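Aggregate trends can hide what the representation actually does to any particular protein. The sequence in question and its structure tokens are set out directly beneath this paragraph.
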Amino acid sequence: MNIYQKLIEVRKEVPYIQKADKGSQYQYTGSSRVLASLKTKMDELGLLLVPSITKPTLHESPIEYKDDKGNVTKRTTTYFTELEMTMTWINADDPKEQISVPWYGQGVDIAGEKGVGKALTYAEKYFMLKFFNIATDKDDPDSFQQTHGLVNMITSKQVGEAKKMWLELGFSADAINQQTLKLYKKQLTQLTEDLADDFITKLQAMKAEKETA
């Protein structure tokens, strides 16, 4: 496959990510959730994403805290980091085959030393979401798939049924993703509805065989 075909295969892998992480005022999609959902497929296809900073800009904003009498009680500085970047996809099977995309990241920090790191994390997460057109609505995944006419993904009922049968067979909870990766090259929650049915059927057969042994 050429680099474009590989990127399309990655895009097919995750049509939706639920906003499951919570901040003080809103729900959001954590960067680790985004990267974990795509990394396995990227590794499988031999795709590398190389970020580079083309222009960093640092803005400093002094802030004063005053008491009721107007006396300054504390002074701090907010650091706002902006990064103009280039995100480059490289096909490991043919390193000359590359796609470079201009990008941008930003990060706010009080101490100052974490601004670049926050901006890079912001840039990487949103690059993945926007480049692959991954939706992050607050709808639950089942409702989203049905509403938007995408491929039917594993339902919460199937997840619960598969996990229950897996534990009943005597396996550890952590090992279920290893098994689905072995069978379908996907983690449990990344299975389609059809693949989930197939996996549950396999578990039922294993359970029946165990009971008759």
Notes: The two ends are 46 Å apart (CA to CA).
